[in-house]
Design a protein that fits this description.
This protein has a single domain, classed as Glycosyltransferase, CATH 1.50.10.10. It is built from 19 helices and 7 strands. It has helices at about 1-25, 25-30, 35-50, 95-115, 120-135, 150-155, 180-195, 200-220, 225-230, 245-260, 260-270, 285-295, 305-320, 340-360, 380-390, 415-420, 435-440, 470-475, 480-495, and strands at about 90, 145, 170, 330, 335, 370, 375. Strands 1-2-3 form a 3-stranded antiparallel beta sheet. A two-stranded antiparallel ribbon has the order 4-5. It has a two-stranded antiparallel ribbon with strand order 6-7. Helix 12 crosses helix 13. The longest helix has 23 residues, at about 1-25.
Length: about 500
């Protein structure tokens, strides 16, 4: 009991300090007044800067050009397309598929609020799903899960257009399973099938049929892909949480896409779940719980009460005024989960906050839940999500927007090869593997190319940001950071329009 009281007291003090911090920056918030509509458009534009493959005439980030056109050749298949995951030139399917799932979920939940950005959201999703379909169907009995040797790539600093590192092809198979990456790919394909169901029914059907096969593969041949692929994916995108969360996540999305009892049975057969206090490309439990809770709240389906309870347990670990909170906050009010790429957790948790609040608001009578003696309503979750989004957009102690190209003060020296090196137009000569380190990587000058909309890893626990290209844990953008903020940005942009 003494420990519980101490925990409550510490949490209460933390919450008070957060409220004091936000009151301190109240005038600043009013002066900054984030433009969610602009930020939403830029958050989607970012994905064009991460494209691999042959770029279309509609490409708006024009300092990028064609790259990776021969990807897959070492396996005699076409694996061109898809996205580079972050500031490097590698295609890792685990984070790419998660990015796709989150873009699809954002579009499904907030499609109307996306307004004129809906076609751009669909285009960002389709760029990924066209590639994921190739990976899932190119060779019977095999699923391709990545292109490019990450160890060789990370020793280089060169534009994707100049890549001269080996474009190794990685796959999983019955003898070398990868339930995690296959489960996430199934989730991405199933979620995307719902996005395209009204606009391209034939494509949606292909996505759903492929999702079924990929999830079946993940279930039938169980194992973690990082156990088999080793240094080809670790420590970059190891499956630290195991693969059960991806099986649950994939089954949950196929259940939403089909409403078939077989997927409900798979969900139930996976048994009790871990209950983490974060949500990421690696750990999907809390996302699956929120997704499945929709059935309990929106459809009043008693069979899904367990997931509603787990979703609320998660919220109680996030809310700063909850006696069960396990989430740290900076003095400026930002959630602080881990030192490296912290904003990926901020954006993904903010998505769950707004989405669960949306489900709560769908009930016939006002719905609340308790974190101990604390009563939580939908607006409590929305308010916290808004604080996080506003912080990212510049409402913070140093008035730094962590979205590149948004606001007057944003990161200028991001850890990103294409952004930090001169474009092919201005420097047509090839820049080899080590050619980009001097004078470009080591330079203190701002990057020559603006990767509009990119959200970087973010500030440190003291709300500081050095804007240092070599500090990748804070200055590197990633597709999964951006994908998760699309939903909250659409929510707040749509709220202003309505």
């Amino acid at each position: 009991m003494g420990g519980l009281i101490q925990t409550f007291f510490i949490t209460w003090v933390l919450f008070c300090s957060i409220n004091i911090s936000f009151s301190r920056f109240g005038a600043q918030a009013a002066s900054i007044n984030p433009n969610y509509k602009e930020a939403l458009a830029k958050s989607l534009l970012f994905f064009q800067g991460q494209r691999s493959g042959r770029l279309p005439p509609s490409q708006q980030i024009t300092w990028r050009s064609h790259s990776g056109l021969s990807d897959g050749r070492l396996a005699n298949v076409d694996l061109s397309g898809g996205y580079y995951d972050a500031g490097d030139n590698v295609k890792f399917n685990l984070p790419m598929a998660f990015t796709t799932t989150m873009l699809s979920w954002s579009t499904l939940e907030y499609g109307k609020r996306l307004g004129p950005q809906l076609p751009n959201a669909r285009a960002a999703i389709r760029w990924a799903t066209d590639y994921l379909l190739k990976c899932a169907t190119a060779t019977p009995g095999k699923i391709y899960v990545g292109v490019g040797d990450p160890n060789a790539d990370h020793r280089c600093w060169e534009r994707p257009e100049d890549m001269d590192t080996v474009r190794s092809v990685y796959s999983v198979s019955p003898s070398n399973p990868g339930s995690d990456v296959a489960g996430e790919m199934a989730a991405a394909l199933a979620a995307a099938s719902l996005v395209f169901r009204s606009s391209d029914r034939q494509y949606a059907g292909l996505l759903l049929r492929t999702a079924r096969k990929v999830l079946q593969f993940a279930l039938q041949y169980r194992g973690a892909y990082s156990d088999r692929l080793g240094s080809s994916v670790c420590p970059f995108y190891c499956s630290y949480s195991g693969y059960k969360d991806e099986l649950l996540w994939g089954a949950a999305w196929l259940f939403r896409a089909t409403n078939e009892v077989q997927y409900y049975n798979i969900i139930k057969s996976l048994g009790a779940d871990d209950q983490p206090d974060l949500f990421s490309w690696d750990n999907k439990y809390s996302g699956a719980h929120v997704l499945l809770s929709r059935r309990a709240l929106v459809n009043n389906d008693k069979n899904f009460q367990q997931y509603k309870q787990e979703a609320e347990n998660f919220m109680c670990k996030i809310l700063p005024n909850s006696p069960y909170s396990t989430t740290q906050y900076t003095q400026g009010g930002l959630m602080y989960k881990l030192p490296q790429d912290n904003l990926q957790y901020v954006t993904s948790i903010s998505f769950l906050l707004t989405t669960y609040a949306k489900y709560m608001k769908s009930t016939k009578t006002p719905y609340t839940f308790n974190c101990g003696s604390q009563v939580v309503n939908a607006n409590s979750l929305i308010s916290l999500a808004k604080r996080q989004v506003d912080y990212i957009l510049g409402v913070n102690p140093i008035r730094m927007s962590y979205m590149v190209g948004y606001g007057p003060n944003f990161p200028r020296r991001i850890h990103h090869r294409g952004s930090s090196l001169p474009s092919k137009t201005s420097h047509p000569q090839a820049i080899g593997c080590s050619g980009g380190f001097e004078p470009f990587y080591s330079s203190s000058n701002p990057n020559p190319n603006i990767l509009t909309g990119a959200i970087v890893g973010g500030p440190n626990q003291n709300d500081g940001f050095p804007d240092d290209r070599s500090d990748y844990s804070h200055s590197e953008p990633a597709t999964y950071i951006n994908a998760a903020i699309v939903g909250p940005l659409a929510y707040f942009a749509g709220a202003l329009r309505s």
